[in-house]
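User: structure tokens for this one?
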Amino acid sequence: MRYRGVLREYAALWPVMLRVGDVLIVVLSGWLASVIYPKGMLTLPGYILGMVLAVLLCQVLFPAFGMYRAWRGVSFGEEIRAITLAWTTTLVTLTFFAFITKTGPDFSRGWFMIWLVVGWITLVAGRFSLRLALRKLRRHGFNQRRIAIVGDQAKAAEVAEKLADESWTGLVVSAVFPPLPSPTSAADDFAELLAFVQGGGADQVWIVVPLRDEQTIHRVQFALRHSTADVRYVPDISGFKLLNQSIDEVAGLPVISLSSSGMDSVDILVKAIEDRLLAVLILTLLGPLMIAIALGVKLSSPGPILFRQLRSGIGGETITVLKFRSMVVHAEASGQLTQARHNDPRLTPFGAFLRRTSLDELPQFFNVLTGEMSIVGPRPHAIEHNEQYKLLVDRYMARHKIKPGITGWAQVNGFRGETDTLEKMQNRVECDLYYIEHWSIWFDLKIIAQTIVRGFQGPNAY
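Assistant:
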């Protein structure tokens, strides 16, 4: 116990050590870039000044992206995300300075791009190495935090089991105190817990009780009012169906989100940039093919080249989705929509080929450019189907919390095409909600890669 104060002071030095380490990484990666690409000579005054400015920007911008926060218990993917945004923003800001000072032509673009990549790799490798070292220390009993849980035995055992499974966090349950009836004297209220904490038995106290048990929360806080231990509330919301649950602060009030898209403003911006860049690239590469398909549609049957259909977008708003027409021109009764089925007589021979290969979906990249759709996301359903399935499938409308996509997690897992049974739609919705829950730029790229590798064909593509 006599080393606890020393360890706390040592832990307080971590942000400083990380800052120094990041400065060394920025300088080292710039030097490595000049070795890989000799045209970027760091001996030139301009390059040295640029490196100094980059170091200063890192000291300002890195903390804004949470680079020096406590990452204990947080996934490495989240830390990589912070590193990527912080490093990219630093170099974009540096580029902006070069633009406004008209010094951009003085720097080698090749060196700059190599510096961007090498710097990112080195920052990620440094944080990964640190995590490995901390995990090893924690598994040997060092750098741990002891937790006293206030809650019923079953819930406390569940929390303890989860923390034991994630031993790399260094969080260890040292004792469990059940919720107690109100005592006759305030001095006796959770006195055993207070004595345990003051005796060095726990660094943190986790209150694990249902949301309705507000009284226990207040009593524990009051009992520990003179203690320096961290007190955390772990709400028991296991009975709720959750989607990207999180705790935020709104107007100074703690707000627990039970269902949300999980995307903050930065995520939305990143995904929008991703969509626009890829859409422009794909339309440029596939432009000649789309012109050929348009001619094929026009020559194969009378009618327009494009088929426009009203579907539901983000938030349930109505959007007009574009497709190459694959059927003969026909009309359906108001409020009725018949899905394409196997050997559908309405399909033209050329249209059947387009649907089998999903080439009829290519015009939707224009929907992506206008911001109505994303490249990856839940497939947009017809309005008539939304009205039907929102009454039959649990949390069906939650799939509209983000923009619909041309391809998605459901599609690469085989849940595409006709939904002639309720089970097929349920499977599709489950995949869509999984995607919303686990969205990341890397998940998008994985889905795009699987779409390309597996091809656009499938047993349900008709």
